[in-house]
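Troubleshooting: if your tokenizer reports a length mismatch, compare your output against this known-good record of 282 residues.
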Amino acid sequence: MPALSPLVSAATLRAAHPTPLLLDCSFDLADASAGERAYAQGHLPGAVYVHLDHDLSGAKTGHNGRHPLRSRDDYASWMSQLGISAERSVVVYDRQGGMFAGRAWWLLRWMGHANVQLLDGGVDAWVKAGGSLSTEVPATAPASAAKPAGSAAAMLTIDAPTLLDQLGRHLVIDARAGERYRGEIEPLDRVAGHIPGAKNRFFKDNLQTDGRFKPAAQLRDEFDALLAGRSTAEVVLQCGSGVTACHHVIAMEAAGLGPVTLYPGSWSEWSSDPSRPVETGA
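Known-good structure output:
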């Protein structure tokens, strides 16, 4: 069978029977309660809200980034509580072009749950396709505890010491906005700039003006230009805290490129250690 696309259209989701488990991942880095308020005002019928800080991230130490990963056993328990079994299909979405839902998609894939897709265009696409919104909060039915995936099934990751040791051997792609990459501003982390040698591609460059992902062929051409002949096996994706870099994982998979490696700690972890090198400018 062909691999499941990382993206699902609103029309396809509306026609799906049975309906997948829906996870509303809406969030705002500047207002951590904004996503919950938006969910309360109206969400896809049956959707469960998941919070970037509380559900998708672990405890911060000051040296492991702003959205560190929890243990796989913790995520397995969380998946069980949501009712995610091996057979259950899942669709994640948000109101920010997949900025935060991409993290949930990546996490489930990292846990070995292959049957997960991101709603292309999010809530706006759903409404434009004639879908309704609900304010009802559904009950969840726990499933048997998920078993963390082995390394062969997991999405690829790299940690800060390994990346530091291998600088120059990877094509590091930074998904942050250009002004943050260049070090002109830094609204969230203590140090401005980027990992030495990193190239910049803002995650929003994956999207069309309507908030849906660009066609696969266009994404492939754009990433091929950035790779400049290098293998995707050499690619490390990063951003501010390992969240929007997941958007690139989805875009590259949709384009038929991959596998690629994610640096989950990203700039917020990298810049927390003053001994690690930093570059500024283009």
